[in-house]
Specification:
Layout: E1 2-10, E2 16-25, E3 30-35, H1 41-48, E4 58-63, E5 66-67, H2 73-78, E6 81-84, H3 96-102, H4 111-121, H5 123-127, H6 138-150, E7 156-160, H7 168-183, E8 187-191, H8 195-201, E9 204-209, E10 212-218, H9 219-224, H10 226-231
This protein binds adenosine-5'-triphosphate and magnesium ion.
Magnesium ion (MG) is lined by residues 41-42, 86, 160.
Length: 253
């Protein structure tokens, strides 16, 4: 469905972040992208969405037989891809409803139906639709961010660390929501610091290191991989400083 081939991208001529990334998201699947801080995970999603000017400098992004390389972000969104950005991208002074409607910018006649679907999926958002998004809890804001992405009726959703900073109860809710959305037919590319949970829900996974894919396999295969266990699942007898040149974020839940 989505196919990245040998993507090279960065933020200026001097800074290359992605150094030949190839990955695929098959239709109907959940694929996860793991990697240490700064490995290039968010850059990969931004490149897919056409959010970095003139990038990728090499390689191609194909989606449903279309070549999306160097298309503008709106065209990419129209083709059926939605991004839930790192940090949620919430407009805190707008209401929940206004935030959701921002995601619906390129569909018209079916907007009310889609909104109702989002409210059915996240009933709490309907209860709070007139509340300013900035006054919601972190978990509720994440639901708004996911709901806003769903308003465009995407075929593929890109999620950038949706569980970051959330209490365990909300982490579980976010993962359940991702699985439900996937069961409803939406393919998923998921970036997560919570590698344990990500590998549980993922059909397939890639590990990114310094802008390169260094490991890939099914979720089950990666859970059994010794390096993954040590570096991403925290299964090590070494103290925190014993993770070599990798630095992990604190939130492992
Ligand atoms: N707007 C930007 N301008 C310049 N450099 C950037 C920009 N955004 C990211 N970078 C750099 O690109 C590299 C990869 O960043 P990226 O955000 O893709 O990492 P990541 O894997 O998502 O990390 P994290 O787990 O911390 O979110 C980093 O070295 C970062 O400093
Ligand atoms: Mg990131």
């Amino acid at each position: 469905m989505l196919k990245l081939e040998n993507i090279e991208a960065g933020y200026s001529k001097q800074t290359q972040v992605l150094r030949g990334v190839s990955l695929e998201v098959p239709t109907g699947k959940i694929v996860t992208l793991l990697g240490a801080n700064g490995a290039g995970k968010s850059t990969t999603l931004k490149t897919i969405m056409g959010l970095i000017d003139d990038e990728p400098r090499k390689g191609s992004v194909r989606f449903l037989e279309q070549n999306l390389t160097h298309k503008d972000t709106e065209a990419i969104a129209r083709s059926g891809i939605a991004l839930v950005p790192e940090g949620r991208g919430m407009f805190k002074d707008l209401t929940v409803l206004e935030n959701l409607m921002l995601g619906a910018y390129h569909q018209t006649s079916t907007v009310q139906n889609t909104l109702q679907e989002v409210f059915t999926r996240f009933p709490r958002l309907e209860e709070r639709k007139k509340q300013h998004a900035g006054t919601l809890s972190g978990g509720e804001q994440q639901m708004v961010a996911i709901g806003r992405a769903l308003m465009s009726r995407p075929k593929l959703i890109l999620l950038d660390e949706p569980s970051l900073g959330l209490a365990p109860k909300f982490v579980q809710e976010v993962f359940s929501a991702i699985q439900n959305i996937n069961s409803a037919g939406v393919s998923v590319l998921l970036i997560e610091q919570n590698a344990k949970k990500a590998l549980e829900v993922a059909d397939y996974a890639y590990v990114l290191e310094h802008g390169r894919v260094v490991l890939e396999g099914t979720g089950a295969e990666l859970r059994e991989n010794e390096n993954v266990k040590e570096l991403y699942l925290g299964m090590t007898h070494e103290p925190e400083t014993g993770v070599g040149r990798f630095r992990r974020k604190r939130r492992w839940n």
